[in-house]
Amino acid sequence: MSETLQRNQERLGNIKTIEPLLGALRTISLGAWRASLAKKSTMEEYSNNLLGILDQIIPFVGNFSYSDTVGEGVNRVKTKLIFVIGSDRGFCGKFDTNLLDKLETDYFGQFQGTLRIWMSGDRLISSAEQRNIEIQRAVALTGKSYPSYSSVYNFSRNILQDYEKFLLDGVDILYNHYDNAGKYHSEIGQLLPFNIGKHYNSEQVSDWPNPIIETQPVLIYGRIMEQLITVSLYNYFLESSASEHSTRYSLMEEAGHNAGRLIEDLNMIVQMGRRHAITQEMQELAAGAGLI
């Protein structure tokens, strides 16, 4: 057997071994992608319910202006936290690279103040360290396809505590926004100061009856705002998760097709090599017998 034939047979065996793994990764990514979108839809419904309650509570809070929470004078922010949401695993193309590029372009040398950079995602953190980007905190959250709500809630409380103690003047979220299957773009969202006007529609029609409030309205308002901020942060994670898993699914789908084509091509090459080897062996036997 020629060396070329043996090498092609080894390549064929290796690709046949890898092809089922690509299929398994594709299936896992598809499930995680759909789960992220389903969870996002559930959280949007929950957020709408919170806004419905908020609509009933606000008239009892007293003199209230949405500008109090929108954060007028954002340009005066001196200490800003940039929280970057990346990936824990590979096989998702430039998912983390795009985030770091946007971080360097939009903040480094542009923001006049103190930047604190937190990151979530082992792959993202590893890539950031290779670029010598200083990370103040690596955030590890529990969950499989996406972080659990409880872990995000605890993390959100840590951010809010720093914000309430005036250790932070603003919090931005840098993440990959989900556009479509395998398509996303890096985007920056403002978490704090929380822009309630972005979520709340004062002209929305409510079917709620006149509420009976036994708890202090301000306490209810504070609790709802805490939940809205947490849900907003959680949605950033879900957007990132949907982007990551849909991208990985698309790449594994393409890799699977490429592997299938390679297997077909190598099968033909190996068969031709075998026929050539058999023909050459027959010729050698015939020559040895003096037939030719």
In short:
This protein is of the alpha/beta class and 292 residues long. It has helices spanning 3-61, 67-70, 95-106, 122-130, 149-164, 196-199, 217-288; strands at residues 79-85, 114-120, 137-138, 170-180, 183-192.
Overview of this structure, please?
This protein has 292 residues and is of the alpha/beta class. The protein has a single domain, classed as Pyruvate Kinase, Chain: A, domain 1. The protein has 7 helices and 5 strands, in the order H-H-E-H-E-H-E-H-E-E-H-H. It has helices at residues 3-61, 67-70, 95-106, 122-130, 149-164, 196-199, 217-288, and strands at residues 79-85, 114-120, 137-138, 170-180, 183-192. It has a 5-stranded mixed sheet, sandwiched between helices. Helix 1 runs antiparallel to helix 7 and helix 5 (149-164) crosses helix 7. It is elongated and about 110 Å long.
The average pLDDT value, as a whole number, equals 86
CATH topology: Pyruvate Kinase, Chain: A, domain 1
Number of helices: 7
Major sheet summary line: 5 strands, mixed
User: Uncertain regions: pLDDT < 50 for 5+ in a row?
Assistant: 64-76
- Report the CATH superfamily: ATP synthase, F1 complex, gamma subunit
Helix coverage percent: 55-70%
Quaternary assembly: single chain
What is the number of E strands? 5
H/E series: HHEHEHEHEEHH
